[in-house]
Structures are given as structure tokens and as C-alpha cells.
Amino acid sequence: MYFCTMIAHLPTYDEARLAIRDGKNPMAFLYLGIIYANGIGVRQNHVLACYFYKKALALGCQEAERFLSTEYESGIKDFETDISAAMDDSPSPETMVKLKKRIEQERKAGNYGNLSKIRKHLPLFYPSYNKEKAISDILHYRDTTDADILYVLSTFDNRSEVYIDSQESVLKQLYAPISKDKMKGDINSDLLSKDESELAQCLVNMNESYDEICQKFDIDRKELCPFESLELFPYIPISSLIQLRKQAFRCLLSIKDIDSKIQDRFLDCLDSDEQLLNICEEIKDQSVQLFLISFVELNIDVETLEIASLALLHAFRNGDLMPLADHLNAFVDRLTAAGIKHDFPHFSTENLPPIRLSN
């Protein structure tokens, strides 16, 4: 509601431009940032929005830091706040149509973390959602609205799955100096980071246990693709991590009928890894138990990698380039330790690649 109040009391674009001429009014810079971020009386421009937010912050406007952070994460404005604020005001049918259109944009873009933030409101926007149909759609590789909603409601931690396209655009630029075509030796698993190694091992455990389950219970095996070493360098795209998590969820649904604990309890507790692990301890079949534990661990590992990428982007957005340099140097150090020849420099805040933020 505070954001909506600020919007209602904004100066015009011309008034804001006039107010920043002396360079001493932090609120004028903040207002101009908001105007550019939302395209109020001017073409929307997130690069300029961040520029003016930073100016406001430098002049002592601490409120600008929150807007700067939100501008990075959403690329526009905070999705959850906007939807929740509108729903608290008993929206009209016309408003519900507009909100549904925005929610659909997020769903079609694969920004499931945004939808997860408003999960309590989703039934109102998708009254025809059918869980059984969603399960069938997922098991038969059908990309449907029901399947997406079930995935959102059944992923215990997908808060980093927000604005995937903009995240991947920046990450691609960040890792450009250490692209695979610049390496001069064989790539192998020794180059994985600790988090990447844990994910790779988790996939091995999950695949092996799933194979045993499918053979033992005569289950139609669903696709669960391990990453090849080459795919992990120099980073795993966030979209690939999401696809992997979707595959794991499909595999879980394929075995739901072999143990009542999976059907009656595990699938109802997918929003809590602690509860899931407690249920795993009660499973008697070792291959089933290993698969379920691996499923929980895979989601944790994927979210860890996604959050690490998100943190790098937050650091960049906030003007702190050191974490980016340190991250690239850690990769280069692993290359050196593995005896792989390269001509990568030691990265510092001065020789990082230029990164362009898209709208």
C-alpha cells in the first residue's frame, strides 16, 4: 500500500526533471526513478530507473535502497506486494481480469517463484484447477495451466524462480570471459564447485534408486537426465535447474501409488523439507527411501545454486562488484588446480565484463 501511496503523490516527469537540476534533492531523484521504472508519462526504462535510485541513495535517501533491490529482483516492481494489495481491497471483476492477465504472464514466462509468493490467491484466479488432471498432464508430458499450478503449489522452495529471462541474460554476460570455447583442456567433474558436486552426486543416487523402483514395481520410467560435465561449465542455466526439478517431480508422481505414505503424506508435505525427511525415515523399502531422500536433497541443492546466482546479480545491481570477481576467480582457481591450461586473468572490479541490463 505504501508503494501505491507514493505513486498517487508523484510529481510529473517534467516536475521531477526540474527538481533534480541542483543535484541536491534526494527525493526528486527517487521520484524520477519510480517514474522511469513504471513508465509514468515517459517510456519505461529500468536502466535509468536504477541510475536515479542510486543517485537518491548517494544523497542519503535510504528508501531508495529498497526500490533499487526491488527493481533488480522484479525488473518492474514487486509482484507479490501488488497482487496482495489489490486482493486486500476487494477487487472488482474488471480488476480481477487485469490481475489474472499479469499472473498469466508470469506463468507463461516460467517465473514460478513469483506465483509461489501468491499461492494462497491462486485458487481464486484458477477456479477450474483440477489436481488429478494436473498429475495426469505432468505424467504425460503435457505443458498445461493445471500442471504449472500443481508444480507451483508442490515445490517447497522455489522463491528464486523469479524473472528467469532477465536473470539468465545477466548471468550469460557475467560468465562471458570464461566461456567454454576459451578453455584449452578437457573439462571434468574436478572443476565442479562444492554445490555443483553435491547436485551431481544427488542425481546419481536418484537415478540409480529410481531405476530399481521402476524395475521392482513395473513402473513406466520417466525422464530424469543427469548433467553431462560439459553442461555444468561455466555455470548451470537457471532454466536448466528448473527443468531438472520438474523432471524429478514427474518421477515422484510416477511412483506415488507404490506406498501409501507417499500418496497420503509425502505429496501433502512438499512445502516442508523437514517433514519430508521425517516421512522418509518411515519408508521400509531402501530404494524408495533413497529416492525420496534424494528428491528432497535435489530440491535443496537446486535452490542453493539458484540463490547463489541470484545473490551475484543482487551484488551487481547494488554496485558491489567484488563478489562477482571472487566468484570468477574461484572458477579459475579450480582450472589451475586441475592442471587445465587457460589464459584467464585474475579478475578484479576493474576488469569485469560490461553488463547491460535489459528492460
A few lines on this structure:
With 359 residues, the protein is mainly alpha-helical.
Can you give a write-up of this model?
This protein is an all-alpha fold. The protein is 61% helix and 0% strand. The chain is built from 18 helices and no strands. It has helices at residues 2-8, 13-19, 26-38, 46-58, 63-74, 79-88, 93-108, 112-117, 122-125, 131-139, 145-153, 164-174, 194-217, 238-254, 260-264, 273-280, 286-317, 322-337. It starts with a helix and ends in a 22-residue tail after the last helix. Residues 1-5 and 73-77 have low confidence and may be disordered.
In angstroms, what separates the terminal alpha carbons? 25 Å
What share of residues are in beta strands?
under 5%
Spans of at least 5 consecutive residues with low confidence: 1-5, 73-77
Tally of separate helices: 18
Structural class label: mainly alpha
* Cα radius of gyration in angstroms: 23 Å
Helix content: 55-70%
Question: For this entry, what is the oligomeric state of its chains?
Answer: single chain
Give the ordered list of helices and strands.
HHHHHHHHHHHHHHHHHH
User: What coarse outline follows from CA principal-axis ratios?
Assistant: flat
Average of per-residue pLDDT values? 81
Largest sheet: none
Q: How many strands appear in the DSSP assignment?
A: 0
Protein topology:
Blueprint: H1 2-8, H2 13-19, H3 26-38, H4 46-58, H5 63-74, H6 79-88, H7 93-108, H8 112-117, H9 122-125, H10 131-139, H11 145-153, H12 164-174, H13 194-217, H14 238-254, H15 260-264, H16 273-280, H17 286-317, H18 322-337
